[in-house]
Backbone:
């Protein structure tokens, strides 16, 4: 793996860094809207002590912090002593948007309790380890670049289609963060100007509101209110509607469900055309439970749209492929996240109480907010 230009580090320091990385164990935390997961990640990507707990959304930020810290402590306590002594830091994957320099979760649309939440500092204080945080899709891109579908690729997009729809952009081997850390929010591109479905962020007509799980659930509720689907009305009498109800309704032949799912696939495909034209990626890596369950119906629709509508040169180059790391992607990506940022003051100097010079050393972010993606080339 290459985490930065060798010329930036003296030879003896580079040797010490490589030796440190070969031994380093990272405690990984993956925070989602429904569950929080944790594990220890070894230098070869092995996951130890996976555990999970429901996200206590209704109980506020402090309850979420307690669950996160409890899971991490449990993972660390259960590690063999030889592994536990090698734990160097905490890597956190969180729903976005986030400020990775200040370690803040900013204003996630579906988790109001974590608005402006100092998640990294809270984990540091409770575990006594340095903590580094980024948006879940950026962490996933690092994971897929390290051990997954984008291994060895320096220009790709990672997109997840699940409850929400998010993305990450890797260009010339670097994550594109932007000056505020919010670049790559691909799900909040507006595709419908007037009368589009509501999005969890408060907007309308966004790709996430049309094609993601939460958006499909909202559209299903609207269909029931209009009396447009007997299938969905029957499901709604049993439990709150989800995207799975819509997908199963399509399979059962329900017309309204079929229209919603087809619009979701077509909207994603149109977005892919725009991304291919705008970013010229070699790969678009697609993960998330909704896309995984749809399989080739989802990816094939996107490939056909790119082939027929995108600019000829980037369309001929790009491949749209499924992600490889599944539910563990947010955990696995914690290791390259920490490997890149531990010891680099860039990622700590904006935190409250930071002492300059406290974390000397490694290759990190450039002034324009680009950081190296994990790669093997």
Residues:
């Amino acid at each position: 793996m290459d985490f930065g230009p060798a010329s930036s580090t003296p030879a003896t320091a580079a040797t010490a860094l490589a030796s440190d990385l070969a031994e380093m164990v990272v405690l990984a935390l993956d925070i989602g809207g429904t569950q929080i997961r944790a594990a220890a990640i070894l230098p070869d990507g092995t996951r130890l002590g996976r555990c999970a707990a429901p996200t206590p959304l209704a109980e506020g930020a402090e309850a979420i912090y307690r669950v996160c810290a409890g899971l991490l402590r449990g993972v660390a306590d259960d590690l063999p002593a030889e592994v536990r002594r090698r734990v160097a830091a905490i890597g956190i994957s969180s729903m976005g948007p986030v400020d990775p320099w200040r370690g803040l979760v900013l204003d996630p649309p579906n988790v109001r309790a974590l608005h402006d939440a100092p998640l990294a500092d809270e984990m540091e204080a409770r575990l006594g380890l340095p903590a580094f945080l980024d948006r879940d899709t950026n962490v996933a891109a690092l994971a897929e670049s390290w051990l997954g579908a984008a291994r060895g690729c320096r220009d790709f997009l990672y997109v997840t289609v699940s409850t929400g729809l998010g993305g990450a952009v890797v260009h010339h081997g670097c994550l594109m963060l932007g000056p505020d850390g919010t670049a790559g929010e691909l799900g909040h591109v507006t595709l419908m100007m007037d009368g589009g479905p509501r999005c969890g962020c408060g907007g309308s007509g966004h790709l996430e509101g049309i094609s993601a799980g939460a958006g499909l659930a909202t559209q299903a509720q609207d269909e029931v209110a209009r009396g447009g689907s007997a299938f969905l009305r029957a499901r709604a009498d049993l439990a709150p509607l989800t995207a799975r109800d819509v997908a199963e309704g399509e399979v059962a032949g329900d017309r309204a469900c079929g229209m919603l799912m087809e619009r979701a696939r077509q909207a994603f495909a149109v977005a892919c055309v725009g991304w291919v034209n705008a970013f010229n990626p070699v790969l678009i890596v697609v993960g998330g439970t909704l896309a995984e369950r749809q399989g080739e119906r989802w990816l094939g629709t996107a490939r056909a749209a790119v082939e027929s509508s995108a600019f000829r040169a980037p369309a001929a180059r790009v491949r749209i492929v499924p992600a490889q790391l599944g539910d563990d992607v947010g955990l696995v990506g914690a290791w390259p996240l920490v490997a890149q940022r531990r010891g680099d003051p860039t990622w700590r100097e904006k935190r409250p109480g930071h002492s300059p010079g406290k974390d000397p050393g490694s290759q990190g972010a450039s002034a324009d907010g680009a950081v190296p993606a994990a790669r093997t080339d």
About this structure: Confidence is low (pLDDT under 50) at residues 1-16, 359-371. Residues 152-323 form a domain with the Nucleotidyltransferase; domain 5 fold (CATH 3.30.420.40).
